[in-house]
Amino acid sequence: MKRIGFFALGMFAGTAFAADSITFHKDVEPILQAHCQSCHRPGQTAPMSLLSYESARPWAKAMKNAVLTRKMPPWFADPRYGHFKNDRSLKQSDVETIAQWADSGAPEGDAKDAPAAVKWPADGWEIQPDFIVDGPEFAVPGKPQANVIEWNYITVPSGFKEDTWVTSMEIRPSEPSVTHHICVYFKPHTPDTEYNKPVWAARPRNEKGIAPAEAAGVNGRDLPKSLLEGTNGVEGCYVPGQYTQDYRLFHAAKLIKAGSDMVFQLHYTPNGKDVVDHPRLGFTVARAPAERNYVTIGTSAPSDAKHFAIPPNNPNWESPPMEAEFLADAELVNMFPHMHVRGKDMTYQLTYPNGETETILSVPHYDFNWQLGYDVAQPIKIPKGTRIKVTAHFDNSVNNKFNPDPNQTVYYGDMTWEEMMFPFFSVTVDPAVNTKKVIRIIRGKDGDGA
Question: What does pTM read for this prediction?
């Protein structure tokens, strides 16, 4: 991490308190509880815990540097467009508090000033589940051929014995270091279903694991038709930076029918070590039907090689957009941009039936290592006939430190070193609306994963 010079004592003249009065328990701990501890606690993705003074004190200078550079907490939405319930960013006064605390020797202060400890859910969950489904175990080889493990689909029984309104969903891999993503589908059980049997589509690939242009964008086409038949598409995903989808924020839920099966879509990126991942899926449930149905919509830009081919050494290639029309009144509540390591930026825009246009999310500095969902502060009312357009740019140059090879043409594909332009978004609709007929794709395609 780049080191930043210490602050002069007078730099924050005019703030409400002197630097020597700032203490951990009185001033810093409340900030950590509100913005940091959800990740910085045992069992989570962050490398160290910030639950106590003893665990946080050794990291004081690193914390200062991280907040000054806005590297932490991770948050990438342009503040000019929209407001979000889950905004992790710090106010400038919070940044100054942490910096001054570090510069003044990181004093502990009086423990009596400490806020009450947050009661985090047990066993590493972000939301304490009412119901847990054990996902399938998957052996991830450290060094497979060409370093490729194709997407695998494994079906398991959901365990739901009656129709159930699910109000949140959390997917937790046991081996996040090798997990690119895990997505889930719900489908009606059929007699020919085979549980715990991996299904995948083989791809032609060269020794570097790269598929040819003619294979671009074909993910899902070579799978058995019955595998995802009867599903509503992807219902939820784990990706780095996001475990949980909480529908309660919008007084909504998803209905899982009794006896449904669950299909896990698994994408692993080997790291040289043999591991076995055993994901779990936790739900909270409602006792009564929801006010609104929560609908997750996976869409994609055109993915064929004619339209999606990122030229070598191009630092700002513009993808063809994804465009769709709403076929029913809805309320837009969440957006989740997904690209791979060359992803640079993504913007969501609405055009209403009266011709008015509104940008509802701009992510100008996309980070594949922190893929965030954005829950709007207030649901955005979408009249029938509204159009949504999502645009994106990619950096296939040497300036992109995550770029594995700036000298190759990059096509749409499943692997991390290939690319995607996959703008998820979620809406709530009246329970009477057919959830399979919420949008019509104008340009692009329905998506089937991340």
Answer: 0.91
